[in-house]
Each structure stands twice: as C-alpha cells, then as structure tokens.
Amino acid sequence: MAMFISKPNLIWKLEVPKSCISNVPIRRSGNYQPSIWDYNHIQSLKNHYPDEKFMRRRNELKMEVKIMLSDRNMKQLEQLEIIDDLQRLGLSHHFEDEIYSILNNLSDKNSKRDHLYAKALEFRLLRQHGFNIISQEIFDGFYDNTTGFGEIHHNEDTKGMLYLYEASFLAIEGEKELELARNLTEKHLREYLADKNKNDMDQNLVELVHHALEVPLHWRMLRLETKWFINYYKKRQDMMIPFMLELATLDFNIVQETHIKDLKYVARWNIKELDKLPDNMKMCYYALDNFINQVAADAFEEQGIFILPYLRNAWRDLCKSYLRVAKWYHSQYIPSMEEYIDNAWISISAPVILVHAYFLVANPVNKEALHYLENNYHEIIRCSALILRLANDLGTSSDELKRGDVPKSIQCYMNETQASEEEARQYIRVLISQTWKKLNEAHDLAAHPFPKIFVTCAMNLARMAQCMYQHGDGHGGNNSTTKNHIMALLFESVPLGYKHSSAEKEDDSMFNYKEKFMI
C-alpha cells in the first residue's frame, strides 16, 4: 500500500479545482486585529552568526565544556551546578551523553548532602531527566511527618528555600511533602522580598527569587529562559565561567538564525497562497491533504513505515471535536465540566501537533509508541494538551465570549457550581497544577515508549501555552508582552560580551577553571 505513495507538489503550487469555489455563507467575525508583522521586514532580516568563524568557535567552546564535564576531580555539587547552568543557558542539548552519565552515576548512589540547596538541586535535575526517584528519600533529613519542613522555616538559607520551591514543581500525585514545601517556601520567599530592612541582601538572589515567583522554572518556555539567564549569568561574577557565557551567546545567536529562516519560509508560504485562497475551507482541505501525504511519503522513504492512518486519525479526531463545539454553539448548550474537558483537550489541536511531531523527530519509530498515537493517546499527550487548553481558556475566554464564542472551562465551571468568575479561574489554575503532576509522572523514563526528544516536545508545548497566555491572549490579540518575547527570540541577538585573545585562551584554560571561576 505504501509503495504507491508519491511525493506531492509543494503546497503553494497546488492547483484547486474550480468546483471547490462556491457561494460562501456569511460567518461571524473573529474581530482579530491586523498583524503587527510586516512581510517585507521579515524577508529582509539578516543574521551573520552562521559564518564559518562563529561555527568553528562554537565547536572549540563545546570541546572545552566536554573536558570540564569529564574532570574526575570535580565535586558532585559543582557538576550539578554546571548542569543546571548549561540547561538554563540553552546548551544542555550539546552535552546530553555527558549529563546523562553524571546523573545516572549520581542516581545509583545514596548521596548524603547536608545542605537543602544541594538536595533540592539534585532532586530537580534527576526528576527532570526522567530518573525514578522518591522525594521522601531525597529530603529525608529535612522533612518529618510531624513538622513537615517546619524545622527549616526559621533558617536563613533563602537560596535553599528557593531551590526547594523550584523542585516542588516537579512533584507527582501523592507527594504531599512537596505540596507542603511549595506553600512553605513561597511564603518564606515573599517575606524575604518584602523585608526592606535587610541592607545586605544579595541582589542577584533577589532577582532570581522574583523570577521564580513570577513563573517557576519547570513551567517556563526554555528559549525565553535562555535569553533571560544569559543576561543574569553575566552578573554572577563569582560563579560565572567565561567560556560558557561565550558559548551560550554564540549558540543563542546561531539558533536564532535558524528560527529566522523558518519564519521567512512560513511567511513566504502564506504570501504566495494569499491570492489563491477562496472564502471557504475547501482549499484548506486540499492543502492539508497534500501536507500529510508528503509527511507520510518522507517517513516511508526514510523508515519504510506507513504512517498516513495515524496522521489522518489525528485530524479526524480534531474535526470531530470541532463539530461537537459547533453543535453546542448552535444549540446554545453549556456543557458540564466533564463534557467540556473530554472534548476540549482535543479541540485545542495539541494531539494533532504532537502526533506529527512524533513522526518528524522519532527515528526509528517505535511500534509500541504507535499504539499511543491512535485512539488511546498516552498520558504525556493528554496532559500536555489539557494544560494548553486550560491556559488558553484563562487567557482568551473573556475576549472569545465577546466575539460570541462557546463557553470555555471557566464559564462551564461557573454554570455547574454557581461559583464566581475568580473562583472558577482559581479552580482552573489548581487543575493546571494537578495536570502538571500527572505529566511529571508520565515523564518517567520507564513509563513510556517515546524518545526523550518527543517528550521534551510535549512538555515544551505545555510551557509555551503558559507563556503565550500568561498575560491574556498572546496569540490572537496585540499583546505587548508577547510581542516583546518574540522580539527577544527572533530579532534581538545577544551581544558578544566576552572575547578571547590567544593569551586569554591560555590563561582561561580548562585546567584552572575551578580556581578562577568557581566558589
């Protein structure tokens, strides 16, 4: 069956039968504002960082980091701190094998650390990388069933409290001690910021606390975090390793060039189609059919596997969910929360996105994984989709109701429980937090058949959602915060603030980095 698949023409060369163009019924307007992005400006963007000299320098710096990570004399806490910095600087994907080796070695040992900061960092990194660890065992010396984490409440270790706060967001269902830790540490950190009498406050720590309380690290969109952390890392003179800063800066700007190229292709595709689009949706059907056939053809050519049924099934599920929403709209029906959620995690389109993502990044395709890409979607997909839906509802429901859209989760909960809008919004926030716990648990390496890169895609989709809708409708509205985020990611390079001379290279060699750049 698959041998008859042929690669279709590029989408913008598609010829649509005239029979597709018919009288179109009048539809209600979404009242979206005009785009703030200019096509000609996007096509004129230039980035010089793919030049050979920058690529060569990046490779040199990567080798220096590899040497550093392989230093057998480095203390485990130093290794963990460097791994944490590499992740926040957006560099960890270059050193996955080295990082896994360090963490795997750590997980096999019953490490005994006296500092809350060190234990919290260890827990967060191990769980973030899918290691099956028990929180009670990690925090055994800081938690008991009588006082919980109460004994550390009067401790002045604000850095430890901050890292415990961040670690608490990797909790799974049933870990009550981490729920208590989150409440306790948040209270402590807010009191710390409110204490105006401390003249000797570490301003770098203050900035880090503000950042964490705004959005926890585990929920943050990684590329935006990279841009922020590069600027923060520069200020951390006592703990800053210059060649890591230079590598992070180069790498961010090189990756930014890839994003700019992608943006140009997307914009070019749209502009060439503009004069052909009829007012109905049949053109979309032909373009979509063309696209998924091309994806299927590529997969068959590269791996000899026929994936078209899985792609079509995902789109069929999405269309069914849209039809259900349309029926609710035209009958003015307000669904129960259960009815709404059962449909809404699909109608947000996340399953379609992630099914396509799996086949684009997984090589080879795992036959066991295919079972979870058909009708029985895996918890990783379900949870990521639900977080996207609920975050979307929090950010857009008010504007969408003004446009005459169907009720969202907030309105469904209000209708079902007679709650106020603020009470409903708080319930949705709690539901997001609970869903993150399920996603954290599903992320366990032993709990799924997916490659790590796909799981990262799913978790990043959830992170993107909370970033996109944190300050309202960052997708359909002219949201200044979202615009600033896009500018930072796509149009504003990070200036190179550290350059090596030949003498500096010798002086800053890997053999004395700990003495010079570490505490």
Automatic annotation (TrEMBL):
A Pfam family that the UniProt record links to this protein: Terpene_synth
GO molecular function, one term: terpene synthase activity
GO biological process: diterpenoid biosynthetic process
Keyword annotations of the record: Magnesium, Metal-binding
Domain Terpene synthase N-terminal residue range list: 36-213
Entry-linked SUPFAM superfamilies: Terpenoid cyclases/Protein prenyltransferases, Terpenoid synthases
UniProt KW 4Fe-4S keyword: no
Full protein name: Uncharacterized protein
Organism: Solanum verrucosum
